[in-house]
Amino acid sequence: MTTAREHPLYELLKHRIAIIDGAMGTTIRTYGKTEADMRGERFRDAKKDLQNNGDLFNITQPEMIGDIHRRFLEAGADIIETNTFGATSIAQSEFFVDDPREHGGRKDPDFYEKIIGDRSLVDLATEINFVSAKLCRTWADRVANESGRQRFVAGSIGPLTVSLSNSPDANDPGFRSVTFDQVKTAYSQQVRALIAGCSDLLLVETIFDSLNAKAALVAIREVFDEDGKELPVMISAAVGRGGETLISAQTTEAFWNAVRHAKPLSVGLNCSLGPDLMYPFLSELAEKADVPISCYPNAGLPNPLSETGFDLGPPDMARFLSNFAQNELINIAGGCCGNTPAHIAAIAKALEDAPPRVWEPAVSEAAR
């Protein structure tokens, strides 16, 4: 088994700031693909609109997804993420299963029990994760061989389209549409496929509901124990203007205390706010956590009139992330929504000589 502290990325983080890639969705939009491109022949007759199901492009447009990975790697990314943010049976059901609410029903645990047991959905989610990890692996190894610098594949595990912490029914606050075990099962299916596709790391990211994240971490631990293979885990939360996880409303410090048991390779913040608004919460996390810190914020706040849909350009992101580095807050840096390969290239250039944050592992960890 490979623990976080035995992994080559952990050693790299002691010496320099590692760069993680940018926004897959933002970059996909620059290719001008249509609904027909998304569907391809395989999903031509799908009954629902698939345009926003970017994970399917791994299957229908693998050349484009591979080209995006190549561009981020050549921009300087040390870590590229699989295009699997919504690649679970639960998330994919939004695109392939009729919504019972349209017929007077509701999505409840009985509905999701059928979803996680639906062979076609499970097989599709498994295929997306496996194919995406293989695409990343191919390009990471190719660019590593060309550049002489090792690159890493992070299996992206997104937050799902359901919440364990909150009720979707304002008139029934105790109601939950899905159970902890159902969420855990969906994540287990995803984790196994990401590992089979040769991911180096697992990244539980854009966490807005800490209980969903706990289900993902339990699933990961159980898969490791059952299958006898272990990968380092990165954890990254999305926070609101008050520094709280968006649905479970934990403060930054509370969030860290809720996930530190997983002994992650890193913990951090992503998406949510622009880098200027994220600064105080990142600073708090860097003060409290005894592991490396990651940060890949949105390129500012949404702006439909801008080219990428977000306000900040590459020089802006480079400036803000440089400030984080100067204040010794980060070990891994990159961008989320609105960040293209040009943004990542600017960030990588700005941070190439910046010293990484120094962290002190917990005594019990250092003694292991």
Can you summarize this structure?
Helices cover 45% and strands 10% of the residues. It has 368 residues and is an alpha/beta fold. The chain has one domain: Homocysteine-binding-like domain (TIM Barrel, Alpha-Beta Barrel), CATH 3.20.20.
Could you explain how this protein is built, in words?
- The chain has helices at residues 8-13, 24-29, 35-39, 57-60, 62-75, 89-96, 109-116, 119-147, 180-196, 210-227, 252-259, 275-288, 314-326, 341-351, 363-366, and strands at residues 18-19, 79-81, 152-157, 201-207, 233-237, 266-271, 293-297, 332-333.
- It has 368 residues and is of the alpha/beta class.
- The protein has a single domain, classed as TIM Barrel, CATH 3.20.20.330.
- The two termini are 14 Å apart.
Low-confidence stretches at least 5 residues in length (pLDDT < 50)? none
Proportion of β residues? 5-15%
CATH domain topology: TIM Barrel
Question: Helical element count?
Answer: 15
The string of secondary-structure elements, in order, is: HEHHHHEHHHEHEHEHEHEHEHH
Strand order of the largest sheet: 1-8-7-6-5-4-3-2
Number of domains: 1
Give the name of the CATH superfamily: Homocysteine-binding-like domain
Question: Secondary-structure map with pairings?
Answer:
Elements: H1 8-13, E1 18-19, H2 24-29, H3 35-39, H4 57-60, H5 62-75, E2 79-81, H6 89-96, H7 109-116, H8 119-147, E3 152-157, H9 180-196, E4 201-207, H10 210-227, E5 233-237, H11 252-259, E6 266-271, H12 275-288, E7 293-297, H13 314-326, E8 332-333, H14 341-351, H15 363-366
Parallel strand pairs: 1-8, 2-3, 3-4, 4-5, 5-6, 6-7, 7-8
Helix pairs in contact: 5-8, 5-14, 6-8, 8-9, 9-10, 13-14
